[in-house]
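With this grant's support, we have settled on a layout for protein records. One resulting record is reproduced below.
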Amino acid sequence: MGEPEASPAITPRRAVWTLGVTQLVGYGCTSYLPATLAAAQGKTLGVSTAFIFGAFSGALLISGLLGPVTGRAVDRHGARRPLAAGSIVLALALVGMALSQNTFQLVAAWLVLGVGMSLALYDIAFAGLVGWFGLDARESITGVTLIAGFASTIAWPLTAWLEATFGWREAALVWAAANLLIALPLHLTLPRQAPQPAAARRKADEEPETPQPGVALQMVLLAVALAVMAGIGSIMGAHLPPLLIGIGASATAAVVAGMLVGPAQVAARLAEFALVRRIHPLVSARVAVGLFPIGAGLLLALGPLAAAPFAILYGAGNGLFTIVRGTLPLVLFGTKNYGGRLGALNVPARLVGALAPLLFALGLARSEPRALGVLIAACLLALGCLFALRKPAP
């Protein structure tokens, strides 16, 4: 038997455009689906909107728990198969969602969607980029998030229009078709495995990873920061307009402020893309985390006058941190076992992201300033963890 056929070469530009488009589809049919379809699904099947969000939380939990397994699969075999399988699983989940006739079937569809999320979203795409380009993948990771950052801009209005015009079942079917007709063919154009010599892959598999001093502590510190920011992102996605209204902003002002989040995310990612070779990801991480408490402090001090600045600062920080969660583990721990390590780091983040909106809602019912104060304290904890991390020696 001869050596396996070499993987076709892939350029960073083609990888960025391919994965940017597929991530846009992937996030459009997962993270941005409940906000537009939950109420209609609940009304059809006779359950509350909170019940549907609970099913989505279950999907997030499954995605997080499967993360280390799928990440290790990418480390060994490359990203092509998991990403392609993820597109198929997402399509099956969305078809199952459209055909659901009772709550059991609908919940099952949401949970299958969680399996697809573990295969088709950022963690696997980032691991694939690292497998192809090694330490040079940072710029490609930034490029992918820049394109995928338009997911909310496209998905929210498109899904809302589909639901209003045709119905929520038809909207789910359209997204299923997008996975099969757009994302899957693009994923199948990717290399079968990382373009690394077979002998080198065997050697990497046979050599046990040598634990470096302080790595475990660095992993814990980074995992805490990732979990805090995942929780804040999840909370703001679900509660930003009600939070601003509770502070005293009008409904119109709250909606306008919410519309500023997307452009702020893209602007921050553009800045990161322009400066990617000049700024260490640890510096970017500290800036990203520090923007939220500044905005929240302005909101507490100035009330509704600070609604727009708060939304802009939150959006910029969230957009920047999306890049950091892929690039910081790369520069801190290197390329070896990157996919498995990234999956393990994000398990707490997925758990916190799934539970945080409910816990925040309970605090919001008591007092908006108190709830914001808790988030500020959490950010300061994350910031402390990031300042405790140290840049690796050259």
